[in-house]
Amino acid sequence: MKEKYAEDHIITTGTYTAVWLALLILLAATISVAKLRLLAKFSVLGSLIIASVKAGLVLAFFMHLKYEGRFLKGMLTITVAALTMLIGMTFVDVWLR
Amino acid sequence: MVSEGMGDVTAGFYERTKKYRWVIAEWMMSTDHKRIGVMYLIALLSFFSVGVVMGFIIRLSLLAPGWLADQQTYNEFFTIHGVIQIFLFIIPGIPVAFGNIFLPILIGAKDVAFPKVNRLSWWLYVTGAVLVFLSVFIHGRPPDTGWTFYAPYSIQTPANISTAVMGVFVLGFSSILTGLNFVTTIHRLRAPGMGWFRMPAFSWTLYATGWVQMLATPVLAITLLFIFLGRFLGVGFFDPTKGGDPILYEHLFWMYSHPAVYIMVLPAMGIISEVVPVFSRRSLFGYVAVCMSALGIAIVGYAVWGHHMFTSGMSDTARVIFSFVTFLVAVPSGIKIFNWVSTLYKGSIQVDAPLLFAISFIFLFSIGGLTGLIIGALATNLHLHGTYFIVGHFHYVMFGGAGFSIIAGLHYWFPKITGRMYDERFAKLGWLNLFVGFNILYFSMFVLGFLGMPRRYFDYPPQYHAGHVISTMGSWFLAIGLVIIFANLIRSIFKGERAPMNPWGGKTLEWTIPSPLPRENFQEIPVITRGPYSYEEEAR
Amino acid sequence: MKKKQGEGLSTETGHIDYTGKKMGMWFFLFTEILFFGGMFLLYSIFRYKYAQDFHASAAEENIVLGTINTAVLLTSSLTIALSIAAMKKGKKDSSCYLQLATVLMGAAFLVIKYFEWGAKISIGIYPNSPVLLALGKGEILFFGLYYVMTGLHGLHVLVGVIVISFMLYFTRRETINQENYARLENTGLYWHFVDIVWIYLYPLFYLIT
Question: Which of B61, B354, B449, C73 is in Cβ range 3.0-4.6 Å of B68 for a Cys bridge?
C-alpha cells in the first residue's frame, strides 16, 4: 500500500489556463504602467506590486501552494520576511548615512 | 527486540558488508548516517588538529615578532587558521558528526530523510576541504585576507583567493543540504508517539540550526560568487571606482557569518542539554523554554549582523538598531544557562568527564557571552573593535563554548560510537590542562585588547610583550591538555574496557540500543510514551 | 497537510514519503530565494543611490525581447503544470508532449537571451570593458547587475531544461508514472521558481524607465 499525496487534489486545465491568461494580462498591465508612466513616481512600486501578484498566482496555483498546509505557507512567509528584513536593515544603513 | 545488558560486542555498524572490494569504497559510498557521521568526525578532528597547530605557531611567532614569520606569512597563518577552524571544523562541527550519527536514533528513525543527499553533503565537504588546502599549496601565495575575505583587498590581492573562496562555496552548499536534510527528517521521521515536545533538546537545536543553515548560507554563497566575479570579470560591486561600496560586502558577509555562529553554538547547547540531565539524574529544567529558546536564538540572531561593523561607516541609526537587537539575543541564551544550572541544583551529580566539560561550557560560554555584551554596546565597541578583546571574546564562545561541548559529546557518546570506555583519569587530567591553559591563553587577550593591542598584527610595541608571553604560555598548557585528551580517546578505541549498552544511565533512545551502534538502528521502531528526561520516576 | 502529532513515516518500509520529498524541494527553493535575494539586495541599494543612471541604462534594454521572454517563461510554467496534472491522470503521452513544450520554450528563452547579450557585447558593453568603464558609475553597476543576475538566472534555466529533459526520458520509460511522480512535481516546483525570479527581473531591468 502506498501513501497517496496528502491533498489528492488535481487542479483543472481550465483553472491553469485561466491563471495563465491572467498572467499575460498582468504582463500587459505592467508594461502599460511603466510605459505610460501611469503612476508617475510610483511606477517602480507599481511594477513590483504587479510582479508580486503574478508571483502569487504562480505560487498559489502552478506551485499548488493554495492547497498546501499551513506549515509550508508559514515557512515561505518567514523566508520572504527574512529577506525583506535583510534588505530593509541594509537600507536603514545606506539611506540614513 | 533490543538486546539488554552488556553491549553487543560484535563490530556493529563497522562490520564489512563486502559490497565493495575496498573498505574505503564501502565507506565513501555508504548512505548510512552512522558511517557518514563517523567519517565526518574523523575529518573534523583532523582538521581541528591542523588548525590548533596553526594557532600554536601563531602564538609562538608573537613571542618575538618577526622571529618565526614575516608580515605576509603571518597574515597567511591567521587566515588559514580561521578558514580551517571555522569552515572545516566548527560550522560543520556538531551537526555533521553527532547530528548525523545520533539524530535519527534520537527520534526513533532508521536514517535521515534523504540518505543519498547526506552522502552528497559528505562528498561536497571533502571537495571543499581539498579546494581550501589546494589554495594553500598550489602555485601562488596562500590567502592572506583573513577568513573574512573583505573587499576590496580580496579582489585585488594576488593570493589564491579564488580557489579558497570556491572551496568555501562548496562547503556552504554541503552545509545547506545537511540543514535541509535534518529539518525534513525531524518533520517526517519521528517515531510514533514522539511529538515535538517529546523530542530531546539536542534534536530541537539541530532543527533550529537547520533553518539557519538553509536561510543564511545562501547569502554567503552569493557574496563569495561576487568576489569570484570581481577577481575574474572585474565586476565591481564593492569597488568605489566602479560605483561600488565596500561596506555592502561587509553587510552581505556578516548576514551569513553572524547566524553562522549560531550554527556553531546551538547544537553545542543541545549537547549540554543532553549531558546535564543525565549526570544530575534530573529532568531538564524548563524543557519547553530550552527548546523554544533555541528557535529564539536562531530568529533574533538573524538580525544582529551589523554589530561586526560598528566602526565601518554605517549610519548611526543602523548602529543603534543593531546594538539593541544584539542585547536582545542574550535573553534566550540566558534562559538556557539558567535552566542548565537549575537542572544541576539538588541533582545527584556525577562529575564524569562529559559533565566536567559541560560545566566548563557553562562557565566559559558565560564569560564569552558577557564580553559580547561589552562589545555589543556602541561606545565600548569603538575602543575594542579590531583589538584582542574581540579575539578573546570569540575564542571563549567558539572554543570554550562549542569546542568544549564537542569534547563533552565525544566523551559522552564515546561508549556508544566505539563500544569502549575511555580512561576517566586521563580525561580529567586532560581537562585540567586544557581548562587552565585555555583561560591563561584567552583571558590575557581581554587585557591586551582593553589596553589597545590590535588583532591580526604580527608586530607590537613593547608594552604588550608581557601579555603576549603569558598568552603563549597558556597555549602550551592548552596543547598539552588536548594531546592528553585525544591520546586517551584514541588509545581507548583499541584498549578501552568494553562498554555496556547504557554506561551513564541515559534516558534517550541511543541508550536502548547496543554499543557500538548496530547497523540497523532499531529492530522495531519504538513507540514513545514519555518525554526524553524522566528521572523523577526512578525510585530514590 | 494535516498529520497526527508524532505519526512517523519510515523510509525503509517501502513507503515513499511524497510529502517529505516535496517538503525537501520547497526547502531548497527557500535557499534559492536567499541566494537570488542577495543580488536583489545589491540592486535595490544601487538603484537607490544611482536612480538616474539606472533609468538611463534600462532604456537601452530591448523591451520587445524582454517581453517575449517573459511570455515564453510564463507559458512554459503553464505547460509543465499541465504535464504534471496529465501524469496524475495517467495520461503519459500528453504529459510527454507538455514536458517537451516546456523544454523547447526554455531553450527559446536561452536563445533570445543569447541574442540580447550578443547585441550588448558587440557594442562593447560587458563587465570591465573600456566602453563600460567610461560610463557613469550607476551605469557600470546597472550593467554589472544585469549580466550577473540574468546570467545566474539563465544558468538556472539551463539546468532546468536539462533536468526536465531527464524527466521526459523517465516519463517515456515509465519510471515516472501515475503512482510515482514526485520527481516530476519537484522539477515543476523548481521551474516555477525560475519563472518567478524572471517575473521580478523583468520590470527591474526593462521597465523602470
Answer: B61
Q: Which domain holds residue A15?
A: 1-63
pLDDT, tens only, C40-54: 999 999 999 999 999
Per-residue model confidence as pLDDT tens digits over C61-86: 899 999 999 999 999 999 999 999 99
Domains of chain C with CATH codes: 34-207 (1.20.120.80)
Q: Return the C-alpha cell found at B455.
A: 588583532
User: B498 in helix, strand or coil?
Assistant: strand
Taking the CA of residue B51 as centre, how many other CA atoms within 13 Å lie in the half-sphere pointing to its CB? 22
Residues of C in contact with B255 (CB under 8 A): 38
The 10s digit of each residue's pLDDT in B236-285 is: 999 999 999 999 999 999 999 999 999 999 999 999 999 999 999 999 99
Q: Is the pLDDT of residue C5 over 80?
A: no
Asked if residue A22 and residue A5 are part of one domain, the reply reads: yes
Q: Look up residue C147 and give its three cell numbers.
A: 549580466
**Which amino acid is located at C4 in the chain?**
K
CB-based contact C11 B235, cutoff 8 Å: no
Q: What is the pLDDT of residue A9?
A: 80
Q: How far apart are CA B148 and CA B82, in angstroms?
A: 9
Residue B144 DSSP label: -
Query: CA of B169: how far to CAs of B8, B223, B408, in Å?
Result: 42, 9, 30
Number of neighbours of residue B237 by Cβ within 10 angstroms: 28
Query: How many structural domains comprise chain A?
Result: 2
Domains of chain B by range and CATH? 24-535 (1.20.210.10)
**SS3 sequence of B363-421:** HHHHHHHHHHHHHHCHHHHHHHCCEHHHHHHHHHHHHHHHHHHHHHHHHHHHHHHHCEC
Q: CA angle, corner B309, sides to B306 and B311, nearest 5?
A: 135
Indicate the pTM of the whole model. Answer: 0.94
Residues of chain B with pLDDT under 50: 1-9, 539-540
Cβ atoms of residues C185 and C45 within 8 Å: no
Residue B443 confidence (pLDDT) = 98
List the subunits that have 3+ CB pairs under 8 angstroms with A: B, C
Is C117 buried (19+), middle (13-18) or exposed (0-12) by CB count in 10 A?
middle
CB-CB contact of B176 with B263 (8 Å): no
* DSSP code, position B111: S
Q: Residue A5: pLDDT above 60?
A: no
Res C6: pLDDT: 36
In this complex, is the C-beta atom of A89 within 8 Å of any C-beta atom belonging to chain B? yes
- Judge residue B469's burial from the number of C-beta atoms within 10 Å of its C-beta, 0-12 exposed, 13-18 middle, 19 or more buried: middle
H or E segment and range at residue C142: helix C137-172
pLDDT confidence of residue A47: 85
A59 and A82 fall within a common domain:
no
Cα B214 versus chain centre, distance: 17
Specify the residue for cell string 524582454: C66
Give exposure, B331-352, as e/b (b: 16+ Cβ within 10 Å).
ebbebbbebbebbbeebeeeeb
Residue B333: which of B357, B354, B361, B308 has the closest Cα? B361
How many beta carbons lie within 10 A of that of residue B516, not counting itself? 24
Are residues A75 and A46 both part of a single domain? no
